Amino acid sequence: MNKLLAILGIMLMVVVISGCTSLPGTQANSSTGSSGINWNTDLNTALGQAQASNKMVFADFYADWCHYCTQMDSETYTDANVQQRIAQSYIAVKIDTDDHPDLSSQYNIYGLPTIIIFNSNGQEIKRIEGYQSPSQLLSQL
User: Fold this and answer.
1) Residues 110/61, Cβ–Cβ less than 8 Å
2) Does domain 25-140 sit in CATH 3.40.30.10?
3) CB atoms closer than 10 angstroms to residue 35
4) What is the pLDDT of residues 11-42, one digit of tens each?
């Protein structure tokens, strides 16, 4: 019985560990995802692209377990007007706070979701905290 439990435990750990390699936010570059927004997953890459294109950076700090973060993914970021505004003026980056606690600490992220708008030099221009509907977000961009 103990051997069976040990084998099941090891199998469960293998499944969990292998599944973690494909979680959002673990890629080094970018992905479009279901929102239609071309999300970077590395802040330094986004800042470099912002400098090259003379755009600002739209940084979405989130966690997979955050209800309002997933609600913004499914409702706010799928809105065509939001997608257009972000594509027009920003380089978008999603930062998983669980994967990047150093950035969470550096930018004083105390609640999720938090959006920080940076200029192309990496200076914080604006901070938007909490859930934002499409109209609420658009009014602040």
Assistant:
1) no
2) yes
3) 21
4) 434 333 333 333 333 334 445 455 689 999 99
